[in-house]
Amino acid sequence: MLLMMDETRIPPHWALRNHRNPLAFKADRRAGPDCIDIALVNNMPDAALEDTEAQFFELLNSAASDISVRLRLYSLPGIPRGDRAEEHLNHFYSDITDLLNRRFDGVIITGTEPHQSDLRKEPYWGVLTEVLGWAEHNTKSAVLSCLAAHASVLHSDGIERHPLDDKKFGLFNDAKLVDHPLTSGTPGDMPFPHSRWNEVREEPLVSCGYTVLTKSAGAGVNLFVKPKNNSLFVHLQAHPEYEAGTLLKEYRRDVKRFLRQERQTYPSVPYGYFDDAALEALNEFRATAFAHRNAQLIEAFPDSVVANMKSSAWHSPAVWLYRNWLQFIVSKRQAILAPPPKARVGLNEASNF
To answer: What CATH architecture does domain 2-242+313-337 belong to?
Structure first.
């Protein structure tokens, strides 16, 4: 059962998606002492801001099951925003200073679109590192997604990310490397979506004390963890929160950028995502795009052919992963709240009473 922390600040698309369960948002009246508090620091660019809210809400809602969860929304200042996104943030998000003055059981920090080769030159770097430091002392666990994962290991351990020759884009099968509570019950092979231009690599992570839980031959390290002060930091280079059509939407957006001459190279098709018929239609469109490059051509994109190929093979392992994360937080809370064991009195001591 997923609960909003403040039922007056519910993004309308969340309410629309959950019209069959209107009580899901009665947080303040229905939350008990066992309810866990999660902060979502959503830093995605405008085009993906609301979609990312919905993705994490749906994923946490599926993963929560009998666990009560309250969710509060934040975003880093310093990320370029248009008027619509600013209005949305003002209506439904709390100021980042509110986060820094609270404690949460867990936090999820998303990435954003990088504009600098050196993350330390991004305008939001200072406040992001402040949030990372806050999370070490004021959460039981933090999930760092994609660029946020890269920023975390750079800030705390000086591990640099490496630029890729092409966007790592598509579905890649993860293999579990070690047993861990976060991967308990998940299948041995798990497909997860990737969408990134950079990567962090296994060797420097391991040498700095990180435990790599999953990786794939095609995309490298995905899930890795490290305790940092009071919190378990959980890093993901993939995007298990993505919905079935997210990769298609991203690919179509990148094609549109090419047609508008906002990028010079035509985007690669997401790996492992489309069947042969869809790939044939997309290749035909690509040839047309090179021959007649103009913004209006996007209207001829073969949506009807590729729309049926939206796959969500990663949904089940994604739900397992976040279910395990929520259970880990619950177990940490219970360990903190449990009374200390009674001292065992030896025979000599007992004789004195």
So the answer is: 3-Layer(aba) Sandwich (3.40)
